[in-house]
UniProtKB/TrEMBL annotation:
Name assigned to this protein: N-acetylglucosaminyldiphosphoundecaprenol N-acetyl-beta-D-mannosaminyltransferase
Pfam family, one: Glyco_tran_WecG
EC number(s) per entry: 2.4.1.187
Keyword vocabulary terms for this entry: Glycosyltransferase, Transferase
The organism of origin for this protein: Calidithermus terrae
Length: 239
């Protein structure tokens, strides 16, 4: 497996198709495998959070979620990524590829959203629903126990900044074959949120459309700017 490293974090040099194939092999292997879709905000947060950095380094697959990561890999390592592998693209690709063989647990989002996402996914791809749970809980132990009892093939965790640490912290007890932090994907699968226009997706500006259309996301801009500064500083240090 070819990996690059940016600002102390790994990025696997894979495109969407190879990522799906690798996860397919994980589904047939023993143990729980963590997949992280790495975005610039994660990188910035990890600079001051050793546990978050460790989660990425110990994950079995880390994909480039966004053009910022693709740019950083090229600038800092000279490697060319085949393309982005976002959670919004990876999740439906997995559900379509493996369909009825998948037992999926949907965890996260507001009450009722995971249920809608699960029902829509079952209707569209024929997947088996192993369980659902919203992201509004404080005590993690009972949730981990529910997941472990369900023993899903695929655990989709949409809990924002909590998701990847939740998976990493409980990895040995989850009982899932593959666990992925998927951000707002459950909202999209449920129909609560629409993806950006296909043109914005092709131009790789979906992230900008999401931020511009939601004031709650405006606080992300400082982190994105800091990411650019960090990458440029690291590039100068290596030159």
């Amino acid at each position: 497996m070819r990996r690059a490293e940016i600002l102390g974090l790994p990025v696997d040099l894979v495109g969407l198709e190879e990522a799906v194939e690798r996860i397919g092999r994980m589904l047939d292997a023993p143990g729980t495998h963590q997949v992280i879709t790495l975005n610039p905000e994660y990188v910035v947060r990890a600079q001051g959070d050793p546990e978050l950095a460790r989660a990425a380094r110990e994950s079995e697959l880390v994909t480039a979620d966004g053009v910022g990561i693709v740019w950083a890999v090229r600038r800092l390592t000279g490697e060319r990524l085949p393309g982005r592998v976002t959670g919004a693209d990876l999740t439906p690709a997995l559900l379509e590829r493996f369909g009825p063989r998948l037992r999926v647990f949907f965890l996260g989002a507001r009450p009722g959203v995971a249920e809608k996402a699960a029902e829509n996914a079952r209707a569209r791809w024929g997947i088996q629903v192993a369980g659902v749970q919203d992201g509004y809980f404080k005590d993690e132990a009972p949730v981990v126990e529910r997941i472990a009892q369900a023993r899903p093939d695929l655990l989709l965790v949409g809990m924002g900044e909590r998701q990847d640490l939740f998976i990493h912290r409980h990895k040995a007890r989850l009982g899932a074959k593959v666990a992925i932090g998927v951000g707002g994907v459950l909202d999209v699968l449920s129909g609560e949120v629409k993806r950006a226009h296909p043109l914005a997706q092709r131009l790789k500006l979906e992230w900008l459309v999401r931020i511009a259309g939601d004031r709650r996301r405006w606080g992300r801009f400082p982190r994105l700017l800091r990411f650019v500064r960090l990458v440029r500083a690291a590039g100068k240090a290596h030159s």
